[in-house]
Amino acid sequence: MTTAIDKAGTFTLGDRTVRRMGYGAMQLAGPGVFGPPRDHAQALAVLRAAVEAGVNHIDTCDYYGPHVVNQVIREALAPYPDDLTLVTKIGARRGSDASWLPAFSREELISAVHDNLRNLGLERLEVVNFRRMGKVHAPSEGPIEAEVEVLAELREQGLIRHIGLSNVTAAQVEAARKIVPIACVQNQYNLAHREDEALIATLAEQGIAYVPFFPLGGFTPLQSETLSRVAADLHATPMQVALAWLLHRSPNILLISGTSSVAHLQENLAAAELALPAEALTRLDGIAKEAAPAH
Ligand SMILES: NC(=O)c1ccc[n+]([C@@H]2O[C@H](COP(=O)([O-])OP(=O)(O)OC[C@H]3O[C@@H](n4cnc5c(N)ncnc54)[C@H](OP(=O)(O)O)[C@@H]3O)[C@@H](O)[C@H]2O)c1
Known about the structure:
There is one protein chain. With 295 residues, the chain is an alpha/beta fold. It has one domain: NADP-dependent oxidoreductase domain (TIM Barrel), CATH 3.20.20. 37% of the residues lie in helices and 16% in strands. The chain has eleven helices and eleven strands. It has helices at 40-52, 68-77, 106-120, 145-156, 170-177, 197-206, 225-233, 238-249, 262-269, 278-285, 287-291; strands at 10-13, 16-19, 23-24, 57-59, 85-90, 92-94, 100-102, 125-131, 160-166, 182-186, 209-210. The strands form three sheets. A seven-stranded parallel sheet has the order 3-4-5-8-9-10-11, with helices on one face. The radius of gyration is 18 Å and the shape is globular.
């Protein structure tokens, strides 16, 4: 199938070729990523519209809801298209007050893999990211080997095909790669948060996908006068420019922008066709400096 999002190209994730324009399902849970979707029918429609448009990489997690987002994905898309790569993550659980709690023990990691299998209705998970708590949305140094070894064991048992890491440092990626091949890294990165420049380049050389979370700014969507002006000059929206910039930034970047709206999904996917002239790239590159705290 040829689609408009083919313009964004493809990359190898694990041993599958996925379109670089993917979708992140977190926004399908209720407020605070807790409980059922505000609009169940719309949640199903967003997932189906994404796949219809050619999206074959969807990011999810069993602690979105919890359980709810995986169950909605299953309801909307199972039996899954052969080329659909569902990527999930483990390493946290939710408190009854919607809090995000660490869940790193061997037992918790194993039971999280089984929760994902059950709620997605799969016998094997294509890619599982181990998500470190770190400094919530930024990584912090510390050992990672024990958790990666548990995932490697589950891979040996055939429950997982590929392993990824989330919210990690370059040193942690290297430590994990000594234990098992790493398919992808998922960290916060966007026009305003560019701490991972060197890591992205290293991963690109190693053929490892880099999947930015909060590509549009997440819970506080990106706002910048420069971004708005560039978008107006290009007759595009700021969100489209932010996504086109990520696509341009490095060929190993895969997009998983999130939305609970079909209209926003379609707007975001159309960024695959947006070319950014050199002078727009220069202006956009300045946004990280505007966003940096003054010293
Ligand atoms: N590994 C991790 O720790 C981690 C952390 C966070 C997220 N993630 C993953 O990354 C994915 C993306 O992150 P995210 O969804 O938090 O953030 P995001 O993609 O940066 O932004 C989503 C926010 O932008 C809004 N939005 C999306 N498209 C828009 C448009 N065209 N115009 C205006 N507003 C728009 C969404 O609201 P509407 O629903 O109204 O469109 C939502 O509030 C998640 O779905 C999840 O799979 C991973």
